[in-house]
Design brief:
Chain lengths: 173, 575
């Protein structure tokens, strides 16, 4: 099929969805990654585990919390379930949640995962949240294996492989 | 089959985009002209882009203009009439007493900005309009005369005026025709900083300079802490290149996706704001964002900033902040201390986005500078600056409302958009460039596409989920004296979500919660910023009877449908 026809089909599909009622659209349209939630995917070291990082703009008297240089400031709350005991992965005693920039230049320890979620604050444009098994919860950098990881929605910009289209979805409405 | 086709199209578009040579335009250069697409408004030009964008032209969009007739003020004047347009002068302050009458005339003016000449609009031949200084509880009469080339009106933003003086055409009055007049009787029940602007084609009239401040002074001399100086700053941005102003859409607004972002920053109508003070000075800044779409993140070169007040009141307690986030139509009052001699830049610092490359760029816009001399100020207000005061009167007043904080939500609004009929390349790109929308669009990350979108293709929506009604089909009713909890939700799954500064006319409200987190430092407001994905609960005080508007204050969103009405039924009226 020639490109113009394909474009036409995409457009027709998009327009049909745009005219659909809200509930119908919600059921049919692709959903983009949430700004305020990162689902953490399990690595091979902990295949049965899952986790989530909930994000919330930090408190501010203004409409949005940003740093003086304009970075969005977010409160991060990480929780997980289904993790094996850390000892089962090696000489580890605990799981620690971290946040880092995509280039790993800056790393922030959010804290140990206990009965309570690990919490902290980040102010980066794009960032990853991940959980590692560690010998203790005090390190400034991680040393053990990564068991859960996820990327902020901003990290997916222009990454077409992550687009819902390439995951069996339809165009967003 | 369809999936394969979609995939092929996306890959094709992405591949072609990657192969493009970046457009060499910068904000200092000329936008791209489109031969043969001129008309009286001058040739249509794609907006220039700042250097860091290096955004490739979307293939297929090189010769696609917005589907509107270009419009610029004064374009229909003959050369003699154009030459007779008076040169605008800087704003002057006018003190008005209770009962005074003031004449305000909107007309064409010539402006020289940064050495370039433009025909724009002005009130009383000034830029911005005159600063009106009035006493709290005063009432003034404003005789408005429209000498523009289109209908207009005067809206007293944030002022809890009598309904007939609200200046909302189609709701509280008819638009004032060219050559027409209207008399506004304006009372000022609240101290603080307010502003006036038109409520007809705000995308054009406001952008071209029709706005001014009102400083309402409290009879309480200690309402604010003592300072060495007060400065009233109206922030604005103008979209220009060396060819001149960028035209507007005559039949409908353009730039309707993101709103019109300017590339020349203006403070009180001039680029390069300057202030000179002595060492140790504490300066109070009354800040108003009069931009069509831009939200600012302001700071003063590291000088400490104390947040004092916002739209309609002081905060419950003063607090130190590192910067001031100011959305369109919002106001903040801040005290800033300049302890050391030197130069302090007034900057807007944001993380701009290039949607094509998917990258963030730190953008630092210098709006002006404050020069601090070595000579100390004669009066040292450092101790007062370092004291964070509580507003006991506001605290006591809010006690009357606290029992309503936990009431169920009374009304809801979902904010979304419907976009249809844009050029195919643009639609194709928009359906793929959807992975991330920032909570606030600090810059125009896709100016060539934004420019093409007009009010004919874009319909911004306020939807009442309880009834399904949208925009002007909504007509909520409240009883005078009641308070109502309003929940606003900015749908992040819309086709092109964007932050919205939502303004309620005639009334005031408290921002009770953001995303379920209670506000801990309350103040009365009239405009609230809804970032993408945000849920905000307001407590609206329905104290002022009449039929009022509520709308997004991004001018192009307002003019593309994003407005509604609500009625406060008078307590005097029978059931």
């Amino acid at each position: 099929m020639r490109a113009p026809a394909a474009v036409g089909l995409v457009l027709a599909s998009g327009l049909a969805l745009a005219r659909a009622q809200p509930a119908e659209r919600a059921a049919r349209c692709a959903v983009r990654p949430s700004l305020y939630r990162i689902d953490l995917a399990a690595t091979e070291r902990a295949p049965g585990a899952k986790g989530v990082a909930r994000l919330r703009p930090a408190a501010t008297p203004f409409g949005l919390s940003v740093s003086v240089d304009g970075h969005l400031v977010l409160e991060v709350e990480v929780s997980a379930e289904g993790l094996p005991t850390p000892q089962s992965l090696g000489p580890y005693t605990t799981y620690v949640a971290w946040a880092t920039t995509p280039t790993l230049e800056d790393v922030r320890r959010l804290g140990a995962l206990t009965d309570r979620p690990a919490t902290g604050q980040v102010g980066w444009n794009k960032f990853m949240v991940f959980v590692t098994a560690e010998p203790n919860a005090a390190g400034e950098r991680w040393s053990g294996p990564v068991v859960l990881r996820g990327m902020s929605a901003s990290g997916y910009m222009q990454n077409f492989s992550a687009h819902p289209l390439f995951n069996g979805g339809v165009p967003p409405c | 089959m369809l999936k394969a086709i979609v995939l092929a199209v996306v890959l094709s578009v992405a591949g072609r985009l990657a192969a493009q040579t970046p457009t060499p335009d910068t904000m200092q250069m000329s936008g791209m002209s489109m031969p043969g697409m001129g008309g009286k408004g001058g040739p249509l030009r794609m907006p220039p882009m700042p250097p860091y964008m290096r955004m490739p032209m979307l293939r297929g969009m090189e010769h696609v203009p917005p589907r509107v007739t270009p419009f610029l003020p004064g374009q229909d004047l003959d050369s003699a009439a154009a030459a007779a347009v008076p040169l605008a002068t800087p704003s002057t302050a006018v003190s008005l007493a209770d009962g005074d009458t003031f004449a305000l005339r909107a007309s064409l003016v010539r402006r020289v900005i940064g050495g370039r000449r433009f025909v724009m609009y002005g009130y009383n031949g000034q830029y911005p309009g005159p600063l009106l200084r009035v006493k709290q509880h005063a009432t003034i009469v404003v005789r408005f005369e429209n000498q523009l080339d289109m209908p207009s009106s005067l809206h007293w933003h944030g002022v809890r005026v009598d309904n007939r003086s609200d200046g909302a055409p189609g709701v509280t009055q008819e638009a004032v025709p060219v050559g027409g007049r209207y008399v506004y009787r304006v009372r000022f029940p609240d101290a603080g900083i307010y502003w006036y602007h038109p409520h007809v084609r705000e995308d054009i009239q406001q952008s071209l300079g029709l706005f001014g401040n009102i400083l309402v002074e409290s009879p309480d001399r200690a309402y604010y802490s003592p300072v060495n100086r007060e400065e009233v700053l109206l922030l604005d941005d103008l979209l220009v290149d060396r060819e001149g102003l960028f035209s507007f859409g005559r039949e409908a607004p353009d730039f309707t996706i993101m709103g019109r972002f300017g590339n020349m920053f203006l403070v009180n109508g001039e680029p390069g704001y300057r202030l000179a003070v002595g060492r140790g000075a504490v300066v109070r800044f009354f800040l108003t964002d009069a931009s069509n779409s831009r939200t600012y993140n302001l700071s003063f070169g590291g000088a400490p900033i104390k947040l004092v007040a916002t739209d309609v009141s002081r905060f419950e307690r003063e607090e130190m902040v590192s910067s001031v986030v100011l959305a369109p139509a919002e106001r903040y009052v801040v005290d800033v201390r300049f302890d050391s001699d030197g130069t302090y830049p007034l900057t807007n610092r944001v993380q701009a986005i290039n949607h094509v490359t998917g990258e963030f760029y730190p953008e630092v816009d210098t709006l002006g500078e404050i020069t601090v001399s070595r000579t100390r100020v004669s009066e040292d207000h450092g101790a007062a600056f370092n004291t964070l005061r509580r507003d006991a009167a506001l605290g006591a007043e809010l006690e009357r409302y606290r029992k309503a904080f936990d009431r169920p939500v009374d009304r809801e609004l979902d904010l979304t958009v419907n976009i249809q009929g844009l050029p195919i390349p643009l639609v194709t790109f928009m359906t793929t460039d959807t992975m991330y929308f920032p909570p606030v669009e600090w810059n125009d990350g896709m100016p060539d596409m934004n420019w093409v979108a007009t009010g004919e293709e874009t319909r911004w929506i306020m939807r009442d989920p309880a009834t399904g009604k949208e925009n002007m089909d909504i007509d909520w009713h409240f009883r005078q004296g009641e308070v109502a909890k309003i929940r606003l939700f900015n749908d992040p799954q819309a086709m092109h979500p964007m932050s919205h500064p939502i303004h309620f006319h005639g009334l005031r409200f408290l921002v009770l919660e953001r995303d379920g987190v209670p506000t801990t430092n309350l103040a009365w407001k009239d405009t609230v910023l809804l970032p993408v994905g945000a849920t905000v609960d307001l407590l609206l005080e329905a104290s002022n009877p009449g039929r009022w508007m509520a709308h997004c204050h991004i001018a192009e969103h307002l003019e593309s449908g994003m407005h509604m009405t609500f009625t406060v039924d008078s307590a005097k009226a029978g059931p």
